[in-house]
Amino acid sequence: MTRAPAVWAPMTWAPRRRDCAALGRLARMKLSEKSLIPLYQQVMDDLKKAIDAGVYAPNHKIPSEAELSAIYSVSRITVRRAVEELAASGHLTKKQGKGTYVNPPKLARKIWQPSSNKSFTDVCRDDGREPGARVVSVETIEARPAELEALGLAEGSSIISVRRVRTADGVPVMLENNFFPATEEFAFLLAEDLNDVSLFDLVRRRSGHVAGATSLHTIEAMRASGEMVGELSVGAGEPILYERTNFLDECGHPLMTGRNYIVGSLSLFEI
Asked: Would residue 247 be called left, alpha or beta, if left means φ above 0 and alpha means ψ between -120 and 50 degrees?
């Protein structure tokens, strides 16, 4: 009896050790030493295609360097270069002592224009992702000079600090810090359950104010440290984007100011 030939199709599973050679025979392209494209790039391109097709699922480990070397019949140096390039581009994350893992797809966000903006919740849903929020702390604190200036407050004024970890499809992508004037108008923030809600929507419903234009929006690169490491589940020193935004209400008056730490490998900003 003649057996039908095997047909490769994208899969969403993490290959076990004994599956790696079989997966390589099914999924890989044929490498060519005569090609003008370097071998490491051929390996890199094939791995990227496998990631995009779902062969290697997000948050799962890919085969080791030794296994990939056997799969592609190339040296471990070639494989290491390919993996390092994919890690640099944000497709993979190398975890010391554990292996190399596939990153979730990047969350695409547009650089906000001064006249309009979108909430994190809207950005996620536009990208086909499920937004989430986990409260770290909600408290009244004394405003620092930067918050006083952003919110137009007098020296010695208090503000309401809302710190949350924002997630996309359950994956932490941003440590969010939003500050509001500590007035009766925003006192509801201290009593409300702020888990898994849009602050923009909640503020609009409870206060009637709409986050409209921005008077400041800057983004700068930094490295993860301290609280960011634990809250965002990233390694110390991993690239982080620090975002500062001052929001105005529908009348052009200061509404809130935000200081956010965004996981660089999981975000893509469109200009």
From this structure: beta
